[in-house]
Design brief:
Distance between the termini: 10 Å
Structural class: mainly alpha
Radius of gyration: 21 Å
Number of strands: 2
Oligomer: single chain
Largest sheet: 2 strands, parallel
Shape: globular
Order of helices and strands: EHHHHHHHHHHE
Number of helices: 10
Length: about 250
C-alpha cells in the first residue's frame, strides 16, 4: 500500500521550501539570491505576459513527449512481458541501451531531424520511453499464469485478455513510471531548450535572464519550470489515485 499525499502535506512542503529559500536569501544577502517576497509577486505578474508564452511552449513539448512515449512504450512493454521469446531477443538490447544517458544523443538528433520542436520532443520521449517500457515489461511478466488461464478457460480471446487482464494490470505500472519520469523529462526539457529556440523556459532562464544578469526574472523562470514539473507530477498522481484507489491509504 502507498501513502496518499494530502493537500495539507503538499502545502506544508511548499511552505518549507519558501522558508528555506527566504533563510538562504537572508544569509547570502546578494542580488544573486533574491528573497521569495520579491520573486513570487514578480512571477504572478510575469506569468500573464512573456513568461506565460515560454511556459506554454515548454508545457506543449513535455506533454507531447509524454504522450508519444506512452503510446509506444506501454504496448511494447506488454508484448515483451507476455511473450518470453520476444523478450529474449530484445532483452539484451534493452539492457545495454537503458542505462546509457540519452541526453548524449542530442547532437545526433539535431543532425538527423534538424533543430526543431520535433527533435526536442523526440529526445524527451526517447528517455521516458525506456523508463515506461522496463516497468511495464516487468509488471506484465509478473502476471500470474493461473489468472490468465482462468480467463482463457472462460472462452476469452486475445482481445478480451488485453482488455480485461493485460490493460488493467499495466495501467498502474504506466502511471507510476510516468510519475517517476516527470523530473527527468523536465530536466531534459531544460537542457534541450537552452539554445536554438525562441520560446521555452530553458531559453528564458539561460539566455534571456541569466546571461544578462536579470536574477529576479531568472528566478521567475525557475519557478515556472518548477510549477510545470509539479503540475505534471500531481496531474499524473490524481489519475493514479482515481484509477488505483485500492493501492493507497490515507
Amino acid at each position: 500500500m502507498k501513502k496518499r499525499i494530502t493537500f495539507g502535506s503538499a502545502l506544508m512542503g511548499l511552505a518549507m521550501l519558501l522558508l528555506l529559500w527566504w533563510m538562504g536569501a537572508l544569509v547570502v544577502n546578494r542580488p544573486i539570491l533574491p528573497s521569495p517576497f520579491t520573486v513570487v509577486p514578480l512571477f504572478f505578474s510575469a506569468i500573464t505576459g512573456e513568461l506565460g508564452l515560454h511556459f506554454m511552449a515548454s508545457a506543449a513539448r513535455v506533454l507531447a513527449a509524454v504522450t508519444l512515449a506512452t503510446l509506444f512504450a506501454a504496448p511494447a512493454g506488454l508484448a515483451l512481458g507476455q511473450i518470453p521469446a520476444l523478450d529474449r531477443i530484445a532483452g539484451p538490447f534493452i539492457a545495454i541501451v537503458y542505462p546509457i544517458p540519452k541526453i548524449i544523443f542530442l547532437p545526433v538528433i539535431y543532425v538527423l531531424m534538424g533543430i526543431t520542436d520535433l527533435s526536442k520532443v523526440t529526445l524527451i520521449a526517447m528517455i521516458i520511453f525506456f523508463q515506461i517500457l522496463v516497468v511495464v515489461r516487468d509488471e506484465a511478466a509478473g502476471l500470474k499464469k493461473e489468472l490468465i488461464l482462468s480467463v482463457k478457460s472462460l472462452g476469452a480471446g486475445q482481445r478480451a485478455l488485453f482488455r480485461y487482464v493485460y490493460l488493467p494490470a499495466s495501467i498502474p505500472a504506466v502511471l507510476t513510471a510516468l510519475r517517476i519520469s516527470t523530473g527527468t523529462a523536465i530536466a531534459v526539457l531544460f537542457i534541450a531548450e537552452q539554445s536554438l529556440t525562441e520560446y521555452g523556459l530553458g531559453y528564458y532562464i539561460v539566455v534571456e535572464t541569466y546571461q544578462v544578469l536579470m536574477y529576479k526574472e531568472m528566478y521567475t523562470g525557475i519557478m515556472a519550470m518548477g510549477v510545470l514539473g509539479a503540475a505534471l507530477y500531481f496531474a499524473i498522481y490524481a489519475i493514479e489515485l482515481k484509477v488505483n484507489k485500492h493501492l493507497y491509504v490515507e
